[in-house]
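Complex 479.
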Amino acid sequence: MKVKLILPSLIEAKSPIWRPIKYSLFPPLGLATLAAYLDENDEVDLQDQHVEKLNLDDDPDLVIIQVYITNSSRAYRIASSYQSRGIFVILGGLHVSSLPDEAANYADAIFIGPAEQTFPAFLKDFKNKTTKKRYVSTLGRTLINQPAIRRDLIKRNKYLVPNSLVISRGCPHHCDFCYKDAFFKGGKSFYTRRIDDILEEIDALPGKHLYFLDDHLFGNSKFAIELFKAMEGMNRVFQGAATVASILRNDVVDAASKAGLRSLFVGFETFSSENLKMNNKHQNLKQNYEQAVKMLHELGVMINGSFVFGLDDDDHDVFKRTVDWGVSNAITTSTYHILTPYPGTRLFENMNLQNRITTQNWENYDTRHVVFKPAKLSALELEQGYQWAYNEFYSWNNILKASLSHEKIQHQLKALFYTGGWKKFDKFWTFAINAGGLKYMLPFLELILSEVKKQNEVEVAQLRASPEIAEIQQVYKSQ
Ligand code: B12
Ligand code: SF4
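Predicted structure with iron/sulfur cluster bound:
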């Protein structure tokens, strides 16, 4: 059988003002996970529109499309075009689980929730010509004894971070604005793989760098510590995401750093306890954010702070306060989001009841647009404040201020390279993507993420003398 798997690009990814590098980071892991259940004799073609031109003139027996909220209109158009030629189309992913009735208009079958159990069941039905319209994941969710992801289908050279992996599904918490409770409705909402299976996957990945895409890498502390202890000595450097509370308990992050953790995405989200309470983000209440930052810095772990703007207790000051805090605490990168009530979440339900949803154009549900009536700000103020925060945090002045406040010169240089490299060299990244040179950037990323105490004087001198540092200094001087 011929099977086509498609990840349509997010609408914004094809806009000339957006940054191609952001969409050349991670390969389509969800689709490669599904491909593992196909028969070894199947002819499989996996295409990711973020990094390649889609070929839609083919004639497969089955088309599998992953739908995110901001690629949904494009996904539906592709689905309809295949359906009009009599080809069987199935849709799944986060947006289909949020709005199954909408997605059902464009598919022969839809999938609600994670698909590790429902997709193999569908494949049997497909062979027997007894398919159902809906496959809903409820009981029996597990990641144990699942086939290995079909990484052979991933075009590694097209991604900056080809070694992304997930060792769990979901998260133990229940924040009102998160996709999680809607997606995992009706069954377990946090579960992990087996450690030996993860180690085997890591072993097979080339190079040093790994990126764990789990919602909360430290979500099960006992499991995480066991995994990190087993990873010690594997000579890896890795990045992941975790909560403030899980960092402050200190034992997990300690084990992670010994295993190679060098950068962590941390969900600070807001400094207001009112906001935290209103959004059921109790795990952040009364947590000492500065202490968490200090602990990570002491371990040599860079921080990507996540912050949300537009929560009901946010006023005009929130943008400046948040940027200033990030700079003075030497956060390496900040990801700012405009609060976005995704359909299916409790936040959406509440806002809908209060008549505060202002548009159902899903393309704007990208955390950059205001799609609801904020409480203490106008929509324009919120959008402008968000833009201002990005520009301000990533001004050379603040990048240098934050980077240079680290104690060790190696940490200063790493932070400077990481932040400056990520945000200030878009032309270079676009050139690297177009010239097929992303694969040559990975060793550089690995060097930036390498352990400071093992770095010798020669490496530091190399970093200092590199043309990128000279360019950064020149730009700074010219401002
Ligand atoms: C990697 C990633 C990205 C990459 C995506 C590129 C890529 N190649 O996938 C990039 C960097 C581009 C990105 C961008 C953004 N992202 Co993002 N991202 C992720 C992340 C961390 C991991 C995705 C992943 O690989 N998961 C692991 C795989 C195994 O799971 P999966 O893809 O869901 O696939 C499973 C099922 O969904 C199902 N499935 C999927 N498709 C199909 C199709 C069929 C037919 C079937 C049967 C089954 C099926 O099968 C798989 C196995 O169960 C998730 C967090 C998460 N935990 O998923 C956030 C996440 C998806 N992103 C999110 C957001 C908000 C964004 C941005 C808006 C952020 C921003 N401000 O720019 C943008 C836009 C995305 C959007 N929603 O429109 C939110 C989405 C919220 C929502 N309701 O849509 C998430 C959930 C993070 C979060 N916790 O809030 N993201
Ligand atoms: S901690 Fe993060 S992943 Fe977990 S429910 Fe809250 S927002 Fe979602």
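The chain has a mean pLDDT of 91.
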